[in-house]
Structure to design on (219 residues):
């Protein structure tokens, strides 16, 4: 069981490392300043540990709101320490909501016929 | 059953397209697993919206770390960003998140 969990952690770490590597490579190309492998590994490790902090915060915020599901409101609270970041995350959240509303509108037409079908069956 | 090889090929080409589009980031599933493994209680869940937002937040964190390290390297007139540059910006980075 614990071996299994260890392996999952290792895989997650590898996934984070991969994404950090790609992000850093892109940034290195844009600014003509390459990152050493050590730096990429260090940033990946930091991000991985920061995730643990974020998760504990998110869980505490959700529990304080008497929820067992972490919502986007909790994420907004995690980003509270920096004004710019908090505004950025709030805008992103709005964007996501807007996207979902658009999707619903798009699907509404398609779903209507299916819904009436289901209703008649009920 | 669908041919898994064909599926993989499709996802691969989609990935290649995304690479060109400058859209590099964490996958939603990865973020969900990453955060869920750190929750103290088993019944705590993560909503889809929250997962996408956390993916964005993590991306910003990594980009911020990279850009600050780069700036540090620049101020020391180094061509390559090395561990010492990251070490110098780490404390403030952690205070800002």
């Amino acid at each position: 069981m614990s071996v299994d969990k260890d392996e999952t952690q290792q895989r997650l770490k590898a996934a984070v490392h991969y994404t950090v590597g790609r992000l850093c490579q892109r940034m290195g190309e844009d600014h003509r300043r390459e990152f050493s492998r050590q730096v990429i590994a260090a940033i990946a490790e930091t991000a991985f540990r920061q995730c643990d902090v974020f998760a504990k915060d998110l869980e505490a915020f959700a529990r304080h709101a008497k929820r067992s599901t972490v919502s986007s409101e909790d994420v907004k609270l995690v980003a509270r320490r920096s004004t710019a970041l908090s505004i950025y995350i709030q805008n992103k959240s709005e964007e996501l909501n807007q996207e979902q509303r658009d999707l619903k509108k798009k699907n509404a037409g398609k779903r209507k016929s299916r819904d009436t079908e289901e209703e008649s069956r009920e | 059953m669908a041919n898994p090889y064909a599926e993989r090929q499709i996802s691969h080409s989609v990935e290649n397209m995304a690479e060109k589009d400058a859209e590099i980031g964490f996958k939603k599933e990865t973020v969900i697993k990453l955060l869920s493994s750190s929750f103290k209680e088993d019944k705590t869940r993560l909503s889809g919206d929250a997962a996408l937002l956390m993916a964005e937040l993590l991306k910003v964190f990594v980009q911020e770390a990279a850009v600050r390290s780069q700036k540090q390297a620049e101020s020391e007139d180094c061509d390559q960003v090395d561990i010492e540059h990251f070490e110098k910006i780490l404390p403030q980075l952690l205070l800002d998140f």
Summary: The CA atoms of residues 37 and 78 of chain A lie 29 Å apart. The mean pLDDT of chain A is 90.
